[in-house]
Amino acid sequence: MLATLTAGLWIRKAPVGVVFAWALVSIAATNPNLLNLPGTGIISNFALLIFAYIPVSLILAWGGSAAIRAL
After folding, report:
1. If we measure between CA atoms, which residue out of 63, 66, 67, 71 comes closest to residue 1?
2. Span 14-40, pLDDT tens digits
3. pTM
4. Structural domain spans, the chain
């Protein structure tokens, strides 16, 4: 996952950057106390764990398609 994310950001693929930003915003929404924002506990970390399958699957799917195109 990390290699695919790094490769996508390295070659500046916009969809990979958008998904990465989406994941960062969702982490910030789950843990607003890290940024000294109010609203702690509105979204649980367990909900984020379930939600994380969406951006992870999108990034891995992009990596798989890039690998197949490279063949």
Report:
1. 63
2. 787 788 888 888 888 898 988 888 888
3. 0.68
4. 2-70
